[in-house]
Amino acid sequence: MKARLEALKNEALAQLQEVTGPESLNDLRVKYLGKKGALTEILRGMGTLSAEERPLIGQVGNEVRAAIENVIEAKQNAYQKEETEKRLQAEKVDVTLPGRSMPQGGIHPLNKVIQEIEEIFIGMGYSVAEGPEVETDYYNFEALNLPKDHPARDMQDTFYVTEELLMRTQTSPVQMRTMQSMNGKSPVKIICPGKVYRRDDDDATHSFQFNQIEGLVIGENIRMSDLKGTLQQFSQEMFGPHTQIRLRPSFFPFTEPSAEVDVTCVKCGGSGCRMCKQTGWLEILGCGMVHPKVLLAGGYDPEKYSGFAFGMGVERIAILKYGIDDIRHFYNSDMAFLKQFARI
């Protein structure tokens, strides 16, 4: 039996030297060391040996097993190392290569302008108020001194959902809702940004949907001079410290007196150019002192309280600030156009 074990060892070691890969190595391991392998078959015959021979044959059997296992383990380690090297070569990274830049988005120019306007007025002590875009006729018109037969309703051609529900034509309803929620308390100092909707043909200067920001201040002894000073500060922070404003008399049903506000041309500084049609001025917003009927509808005594309100189109401000010639650029999702603002 000892001779058979030695012969088995020599045969196994010889065949192990000729293996060509992990699969054939495993086949030889099973062939010689498995539960039904050659070594096991030989050792099963130990039962026929004398008590003196069993320890000797057992020791030889262990030596044969160890010799074969050592070669198999060495081969396995060699194959694993070889596989690791192949993977390292295949997954090699050249750390000297420049990094791959990831595309980055940017804030939409209209959102940039909205954020800038909000920051300016928040810096002046205003808070931001919001309201529903689907509004009632009462809040959009009647509470703002525009009864159903008022001719000024024609100025705002409206998308009606039902007879009493509509897509808001202005953010002024947010002002009324805020006034009523204050239950006659003052001061009120808010701006109301949001989308508004009007029946209009899309062209270079008009859109059926656009963004508006309105402001409202209510308190005791609020004067027209407070309104002018507020708009002067806003214009200088938005368009530059040398910007001047002028107020021209106008009409709005919810303010009395009312005015249109112009700023010195952002291109020529007021000297006159093609952009301002040689006038030196550009219109940016409307404003006025809150009408007494609107104060009453909001729960304020017009004998005690006064206030001012103003409203501006965000697209109009953005067009002037960035020198854009067509309002439709804001909505066409033209990446070449939008990428210009990612760096601003």
TrEMBL record:
Keyword Aminoacyl-tRNA synthetase annotated: yes
Co-factor requirement: Mg(2+)
Keywords: Aminoacyl-tRNA synthetase, ATP-binding, Cytoplasm, Ligase, Magnesium, Metal-binding, Nucleotide-binding, Protein biosynthesis
Classification via Pfam families: Phe_tRNA-synt_N, tRNA-synt_2d
Chief place of localization: cytoplasm
Positions annotated to bind Mg(2+): 256
InterPro entries (alphabetical): aa-tRNA-synth_II, aa-tRNA-synth_II/BPL/LPL, Phe-tRNA-synth_IIc_asu, Phe-tRNA_ligase_II_N, Phe_tRNA_ligase_alpha1_bac, Phenylalanyl-tRNA_Synthase, tRNA-bd_arm
Record text on cofactor binding: Binds 2 magnesium ions per tetramer.
GO biological process, one term: phenylalanyl-tRNA aminoacylation
One annotated Gene Ontology cellular component of this protein: cytoplasm
Reaction equation(s) it catalyzes: tRNA(Phe) + L-phenylalanine + ATP = L-phenylalanyl-tRNA(Phe) + AMP + diphosphate + H(+)
Bilayer-spanning residue ranges: none
Residue ranges of coiled coil: none
Subunit details: Tetramer of two alpha and two beta subunits.
Family affiliation: Belongs to the class-II aminoacyl-tRNA synthetase family. Phe-tRNA synthetase alpha subunit type 1 subfamily.
Name of the protein described by the UniProt record: Phenylalanine--tRNA ligase alpha subunit
Origin organism lineage: Bacteria, Bacillati, Bacillota, Bacilli, Bacillales
Gene: pheS
